Amino acid sequence: MIAPRTKGRIYLQSFLDGLIAFSSFWIYLFVFILAHPGNPAHYFEFLDRYFAYSFVALGAVLLQGARGMYSNPRWWSPNFKDSHSLSLNQVFYVAIGISFFLVATKDKSISRLFLFSWLPLLYGALLVANRFLPVKIAETVYRGRTERTIFLGTPESARALASWREYQETLGIEFLDYKPDLSISDLANLENLIKEKNVSQLILTEIPDVKYNLHFIIDTCERAGVRLMVFSNFEQLFRHKVTVTEDAGLQFVGLRDEPLESPHNRMIKRALDVAVALPAVVIALPLVAAVVWVAQRLQSPGPVFYKQTRAGLKGRMFSIFKFRTMHVNANESRQASADDSRVYPLGRWFRRTSIDELPQFLNVLRGEMSLVGPRPHLLEHNEQFARIMRNYYVRSNVKPGMTGLAQVRGLRGATKSEEDIIRRVESDISYLETWSLSLDVVILARTLWQVVRPPKTAM
What we know:
This protein is α/β, with parallel strands linked by helices. It contains 18 helices and 10 strands. Helices cover 57% and strands 10% of the residues. A hairpin with a 2-residue loop joins strand 5 and strand 6. Helix 1 runs antiparallel to helix 3 and helix 1 packs antiparallel against helix 5.
């Protein structure tokens, strides 16, 4: 099978990286003791503590190594940039693990100087290993394990596997030049071809239109003891990337991953929402509301807040809260622009710094919004944008947010062109497909920075 070869290579590389971390820890400890003569007995007295830290480092390198190589589809031939990125992440995980262990155990016996002077050396060792070991591993473990492979399908479908084929050749897969298609004449001669070419693996680059042809191919491969693999061309059929999931023993094909469909992930996200929104509503909101009230009394008397109907999760309607930044009775259905006469002077500053959005912490506490998610647009804009982006309403599968991936990418404020709309919606859908707690934290941090240093063009 193809996938186990890839997994096996990654596991072996991760194991070797962990071994390098473990061994370098003890080699450097020996050198450190020799370079700092004094009381070597101290180190031997707490030898068990050093063993604990070396295993923490081992675990961190194994964990981040496997994750990093799985996330990089071209890890089979890493360049310096890839190796540097993986090694830096591994060392970062080691540093976090060691620091957490130090704090948790309140350990005063181990040398901090030793631990943190070892980390740069660990990075250097891992950089060399991650740069040169992958190819050497493949050359060693797959020697004598060659799989003679042919493609069966149209040249067009085989073309999609070109870069993948290059990767597989490093794992001991030998691709024969002969590429039969799905014609009746080629299928009739398939068994003879397998014997003549000594084929051990056949890859169908597309699913035959005729069910009989597929059954014939399966039976032929089974009789000859040839491994049969089928390349899924669902993306061509659906004109969209697909995901394959399994539930209760059944397999389903979908158009995208949606991490927030997991109750566990939603609980984590909700906990973050409440942890931030509750103190904001209790402490910050009353103080800011007083400042806004004074500004409005001076420049545009009227209600401090205003409510507007927006579409939320699954299109459910809710009232969004904001500080009023426009004059009373202004037409608010049109997007605000620079120097908009409807906005009172200090209201422009409230909008540019996003202070006008603070009352939405109330929406977050009520469960109508989240801290991070696609921004809820005006209802008439939803209809307008949906005519431009056919998958616009996919973004409604998560709660709307006070800020979002589109906003920290600079796509905030009025949309001036169709391209702005497309880029904003693509960012929203990307967030839906790739959500993680760390992504929310990064977006919140970048939003805070934009509040402190608002872009000059923000409105």
